[in-house]
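Hey team,

Filing this mostly as a record. A colleague (T.K.) asked me to run one chain through the structure pipeline before their review meeting, and I want the input and output archived in the tracker in case anyone asks later how it was produced. No errors, nothing strange. Just documentation.

Input sequence:
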Amino acid sequence: MLTVTQETIRNLRSMVREKLELEGMIRRFNYDLDTAPMSGMPRSNRKSDPTAKKAEKITALQEQWRAKAEQIAEIIAEVEKLLPVLDAKRRRIFRLYYFDCLSDVRIAHITNYATDVVGRYRRQGVESILEEAKRRG
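Output structure:
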């Protein structure tokens, strides 16, 4: 069982961001493979097959993505158990900030709260979650 700490919560956002970046890289490599021009020479006779290298890179990126997704899922599962401590406003802001990686400005636009209010609610939510995690031991 994972212990939820301030560092865990802080790392969650960066991990989700890394996962999204990996998804983008995979999408770009897949697009490059789909749109690669075909030459008249069979692939097997080429000394260096760029398509095969890209396919290998995609496979490696997908493995990284899977590992990151598993880590994130474990952390989110533990944090989700603690979210009922928060009221609906703070819970929504917490999810938008940490799970969806939105900025305070974007969250303020979505929720119609001032940016400083979003930041305050987010910090209060983290404090409440950490207190509950300590209480649960």
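Quick notes for T.K.: The chain has a mean pLDDT of 86. Residues 50-82 form the longest helix (33 residues).
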